[in-house]
Fold each of these.
Amino acid sequence: MSAHETSKAIGPSGAPFGPPLSDRGYALLTLLCLGLLLAFRLLALYASKVDLVMDEAQYWTWSRDFDFGYFSKPPLIAWIIRAMSETCGVSEACTRAASPILYTLTSGLLFAVARTLFNARTGFWTAIFFATLPGVSYASALITTDAPLIFLWTLMLLFWVMLVKRQSMGFAILLGLAIGMGLLAKQAMVYAVLCIACHAIVSREARQALLGGRAIVAGLIAIALFSPNIMWNAEHGWPTAKHTGDNMGWRAPYVHPLALAEFIAAQFALFGPILFAVFARASFRHAGRQDDPNKTLLLCFSLPILATLVVQALLSRAHGNWAATAYPAATVFVSAVMLEQGRRVLMAISMALHFLVAAIIGIAPAFARSWTPFEQLQFLRSSIGWDETADAVRKLLSEGAYGAVLVDTRDLTAELLYYMGEAKTPIYVWKRRPEPHHHYEMTRPFVAGTPEPVLLVSLRACRKGIARHFDSVTLLPPVEIPLVRNQTRTLHACALSGFRGADK
């Protein structure tokens, strides 16, 4: 559908909300709205009273040691956090600040994608819808691998759109760069190959875009950029590949309809119930049609991902955020459909709902320890009290001449490494199996020769499975750490000495 046909389809005014603006007007309005939203989210981060969650603390510890790979993920997230730390210091707000910035930039890129495929009006609504998706609002309050992944995925999508439109070697080079950098962000960038292949199958223009050596050039550039991580994995026994395989969980030929239902429900929650319902209905109606090549392109960059994860959820499990790479193209598609159909009421209700969720997620962390309604939010309670937990460990260390701290879980290790900072007493993790199952089992395993006595700290009672490897075990009084109203975290500790070896 052309821009002229679109204007006729949505009413005499040419826009669902008042008279249309010029392209420049929509661009400036988009910039203003995204800028205000970014300012709100950055201020919310600095007002937040919650600590880093486990994944965030783990990524921060990775950032202390520059490398081309880490146990479960490629290195880009660690590089970004290190850059932010060098820029504004070590703090929860600074560690997280890259996330809202990257999601804002992603929204701006989606404006460019939608404007190229449809018009600036569609670009505006796409950018605002995406920036306020419930999943994006939640992710903007944390720093995860999804932030750089989605930014680079959207950059890849823009370069692919331009490559299809212009058949240019320059855009093939840029496409390869985006894919290569995306692979350094998260393994899910490999979906780009699937999506491009699907588009090439159904579109003659897409097939032509890959000719003339353009596909080879893009592929070689992507592989070259990703090769340092491949070599790192080869040198360390392929931990990332093994972790990814473990996450997939394909261990038995059973189906899991409940896991599938949970995955689909998560999409309604993360993408927004109205937008996801519109997307599901409109994509079903458009699938197999060739009357609008632009919508076909967008569906090729969303439906294959969702279909793959539906199968994954049915066979094992799939976390809701695993579908995040489908959201950029899906948002453009939904925005174009709703504008064409003149869905004013649905757009207004959806936007109001999105802004309400964004406001709650932005404000809640500032009152997480002082206002009862926010105290009960699970995502807040899990990120409270880690600084106090580190203080409790420091106090225990001051009461004895310990040579090392021993921790039995990845979660507690990550939090203590962040909140204890440059502790004089080194922190190690108990390695339960010959093969490491997380980053700290690979980099900080407790071994013979570690200075003793050892202070074992745990969120469970001192485990007999660890204590039996030592000649002397002294239980220490548990420490109650206040979290929110009527809730505490219990820290258990015991003093160990006379390590007999982990295999005895």
Amino acid sequence: MYIETVKKTMNLPEKVRIFDTTLRDGEQTPGVAITVDEKIRIAKKLDKLGVDTIEVGFPVSSPGERKAAREILKLDLNSSICGLARPLKKDLDAAIDCGVDYIHTFIGTSPLHREYKLKMSKEEILNKAVEGVEYIKDHGITAEFSAEDATRTEFDYLKEIYTAVEDAGADCINVPDTVGVMIPTSMNYLISELKQEINIPISVHCHDDFGLAVANSLAAVEAGAQQVHATINGLGERAGNASLEELVMALTTRYNIKTNIQTELLVDMSEFVSRITGIKMPPNKAIVGENAFAHEAGIHVHGVLQKAETYEPITPEMVGHTRRIVLGKHTGANAIRAKLDEYGIELNEEQFERVFNQVKSLGDKGKCITDADLKAMAQTVLGKAKKEIVKLEGFSVMTGDNVLPTATVKLNIGGETKTAAKTGVGPVDAAINAIQSLVSESADIELKEYHIEAITGGTNALAEVFVIMGDKKGNKATGRSTVDDVVMASVEAVLDSINKILVER
């Protein structure tokens, strides 16, 4: 509602081109090195994703960069294939020799770059920029020019150099916020001012040093920028670049601006690049993170189950994601019932209450309950003995180095409380021995089989214990328990099995 009102004040383009620099700037992420074969695989997926231009690297920098460019060009992709080059003949020739159809050339223009990096005058830099663009155009190649550190460059000089490269034949000018110092309002102002002077498309390349790369890129689009540079997962130098998936979805759904991106492939693309680079995305990463469409709080889950739009601005299917109901201490009964319905598990009210209370208890301990955990808990409750003749009133174990494992168990058997302490080869064995000694007066029941399994990974995984107990008359029964303590799970499973035998006798 509010967006539609303010959009009337914007200079929005009908369509925005997506210039992907994952293979160039993204590879500059500390600790990331992408092989030629991996670059080829990423390029194929970027092309399928629908990016307009793929910046494949900096050809002059190494033979590997040149090989990657040549191999990608052999794929005959729909995306334009771009090489980065300084406005130096050796750089430009390296890119041209690779056969690229697009060259992105750049030179520093800010006072800092002029004085400390380049040690060149304004005039020298302007001449270099013009010569570089002219050289590219003389070879019939699309030319994009970047004034490196543009956002810390005097506006009059910035205007002068951009006007000069436009006159030299540049097809596009790019405005890099090289160290991410802009805020959206200032980026909007800068692009608006440049639009009054420049007649060719304007692009932006925003870094995320203050977490504003996406916001600054969108502010540029609001002022009329027709292209944005981005990387998958926001990879790049230091804090990275504008995140392609965030940019695209904001453009598509907030601004209703067209791109060529197949948005349903975004999650797959993100996960693919994450695997290759080894840079794992935070679970709360917008659009593609594991938790992007995960809900735990009871009120939120209830709302989403009734109508997804209550707590989801877009559907997970739009980006190739899936909705996930997370069970924990904030989970309401509706969420648990919805999950159980999804699994086809029917519980009566008493059984449901047991599962619900266990979820809450585990959540209070800081555990998130997985689908597998919930299924196991529900199946355990469903399989419980119909009557508890033997009830656990308490137990303790003592174990450790040079200590004989000992368990003390207190049971209520038919209304009478009994206690026993026994040793064993371990705490579980000791606890089972104590239980058997107490129950032996009522029935001679012994352990036949014992199985334990961690349902999910991690040190706080739920333990699922399955046992078979039997008596001398040949009666047997299974017992199962699913809790976060191995000894407790074992005790509960054994007692469940014993109760089933006693009930059936």
Amino acid sequence: MKALRKIIYAGVLLSLASCSEDYLEVYPTEVLTDTQVAAAAEINEEVAKGTLLGIYENMYRFGSGGTSAQEDFGVTAQFMQMDILSGDMAHLGKSYNRQVDISELTATLDPDNNVNYRAWRFLYRIINLSNLVIDASGGNDVVPETETGKYTIGQAKALRAYAYFFLVHAYVNDISDLSKPVLPIYRSAEELDQPKSPLQDVFDFVVSDLLDAETLLDGFVREEKIEINQDIVRGLLAKTYGALNNWPKTEEYAKKVIDAGYPIMTADEVALLPDEDGSVGGFNDVNTIPGVMWGINITGEGQGLASLLSWWGFVDAYSYSYAAVGNPKGMDRGLYNNFRTDDIRKYQFSSTLRPLGKFYYKGAQNNGFGLFSGPQSNIDSDSHYMRVAELYLLHAEAAAENGNNSAARASLKALLDLRLDDSSYVDGLAGKALAEEAALQARLELWGEGQSYFIMKRRRQTRTRGENWLDFAGQSFNHNDEKLTYEIPQNEILFNSNLDGQN
């Protein structure tokens, strides 16, 4: 099976890498066609499954957004950029000019800027390739007879939904304006040049795909954490319903994930505590941290990433790359000031609020945690996309919004009891105040993990940049400010005659 995977991974990814960068194609002609995938799948349905697994690998590969930019490495590249836009990840240095146009809020106002292009192309590639798998398996309305077939199409629908969930947040200023036409929906690889659909229709499509996936993936036992199982689908449903402020459904699905039994990361796992050697922390190995529900196990054997071309290179100061040589990221000072005095998560950050004790190259402890102590290449620290802690906090937020204060406090304290000496202050909170506290704790707990932007838009928040920002320190930005949202690439508008301009 692993040999088959490697062959198919390579085939799919080589086809992706050959895509032209001359103009934006939602459906690059160089990838496998639906006819090709379908014909192969008729012979062996493992081929369709392998194509699916190739999509997963493309989620972290360099160039997955169709450019040669060093910031083009899939999901975590977008996480980092959107964390900056949210205001929670402060840009602390401008050496080498990396992410400057994001922190200065100029890229998001220029539809010709590659920041907008990379995200669009990356996410619509996921949609296109998912559609190829779904089409090859019989189409959207087919329920395959075999378990392999059901599990394959279930994951493909979940991936398609995730891409649209991401697009909605990244390219729509106000996600509460459900009547506004915002994005083209592609239900099949045969559909081309679709017009914008209303936001409500896009959300309905996401929910429909995820509900189908929830059913199709019943009983699926994955081999690797990169694969989407039923619990991940339910987590995505909770997040989607949260974006819609459908709090009863958010609470329901977040609780389903909690009940699945994933443990919350311990104090030793989340922070480099005093007198510890750091060998169990660092967020660098998804397989040894049960609290990480979804992520990619990156190995040095053919999967290693060059440090300049990875999330770790931009954030981990111990790995010899941008974070170490003049382009550091750190927690916004205003956000940091919300930590309680007894919060162990304060050990995640240096005095300058750089994440020296949260994210670090897995060999850093062997080199005395010295700056520049990691390699220039072959990063094999893992990427993670979902932790169960997020669902505990989202459940607390939704339960409080629903007036279910006791359940909200229980979920919030389940996490805070692992972070604080005393979480009793939570007992004095209720309703909106309790919901806001859960959302705040999510920002603190999940800093640098690509969730702050989604929280901002879900809560319809205004964010104020702290004093440690190089740009716009002390200035406030509303969640629907166009400066915080990507533009539809201008070439895409020119290429698709059915699009009627920017959102």
Amino acid sequence: MNATSTEYWLGIDCGGTYLKAGLYDRQGAELCISRQALPVISEHPGWAERDMSALWQSCIDTIANVLRQSGVSGQQVQGIGISAQGKGLFLLDKNEKPLGNAMLSSDRRAIEVVSQWQRDGLPELLYPLTRQTLWTGHPVSLLRWVKLHQPERYRQIGSVMMAHDYLRFCLTGERACEETNISESNLYNMTLGGYDPQLTELLGISEVNSAIPPVVGSAEISGRVTEEVAAKTGLCVGTPVVGGLFDVVSTALCAGLQDEFTLNAVMGTWAVTSGLAPEICQHEAHPYVYGRYANALSSDEKNYIVHEASPTSSANLEWLTQQLGGLGFEEINRLVAALPKAGSDVMFLPFLYGSNAGLDMTAGFYGLQSLHHRGHLLQAVYEGVIFSHMTHLNRMRERFTQVKKLRVTGGPAHSKVWMQMLADVSGLPIELPQVEETGCLGAALAALVGCGVYSDFKQAQGQLSHDIQRIEPDADAWSAYQHKFTRYQYLIEALQTYHERCSSLNKS
């Protein structure tokens, strides 16, 4: 592969299953992508960890590979950005060495911590300050768990970070927490626009205040490549590294989100539906999650990204296909497309990795009979994931009342069958931006803005020229899907009662 430009920007994306590195020119055109699988360590039920040293080695290897494969020299790389999965917890000790394994956002060990906080009414105290819900994979929940269960490790904490903060530290030796991600940590006061000591006091983790690095903007140069890293990767010493992005923000940027008429849905491990708002509304129908949107340092705009989210998306399908012998996407789509829309009684609750219907809810099929085959199971998973997304989408449409279309990214966006189902169930046109690696591209855009190629992200977005495919809803299928969606909601209500009774039984 031969580089045709003289200047490139490196975008790194650290996801739940892969680490990727991509090279882009100033128009956002992709030259080359390199990727490595990232193992998840699960030594106990509900645990989801990552070896921090192994992650950094994977990052070194991936950067070196993308330079080698592309024929781009380190001198041609003008800047670096990192996009990563949000939440989770990456700890350094007081000597700036990894303190045990990182805990990922899908980690559920803190479920009792969050349950106790809920019983104590803590979410109601926190939400007006943070504009966040409490989740098991939040850094604050995991910190509290560490304090309760690993007190010696807790005493050794020197730095509290998340994935792209850790990788940026490894590249530069500089500690910082990037704003789009840290703003959704429950450590950040959304109204004040920074850390708030009363939050850690309320959460019982105030000892970590001194270990939380300063906040940096997405496009702010927060360090430069060190000599040691340059020698290992082929990058040049002093190459600027910007703050980077929470991957949901990265995706929203690549999807062209700029106003309140379009929502963006990400379908991966997490089901995330996002919209942009110029300000925080004080009286809303639901406790929407707010985060800071990416702005250039020179911008006075205080745009927010507003979410509804849960880990209830396509990772459920990946699990099932593994159990069925690794079926390919093409075969799955063929099996699902061969069945009548919403024609089966089989339902699937996509809660293998968490739920948006209660902490105790777990995954399962209901309605199975001997006449059903694997095609029905796969169809039910497709439907269940869409129905779970609809829980969020319907709430978001109460907030964004003028929405006219839904843009979708993530693995399921490659399935026309699945996307047609989403259009049919939602009644909205579905738009599919033809951007393969939104994490890498978004990170590269942050680097382009940070290096002064563009004055802000809106200008950078305007340089992207990716095609957008559009899928219109099938009005004839809408009523059948609504009937099944209603039954899905009835099933959840019944199981919520079941879990409540089980909980009462355990206490008696």
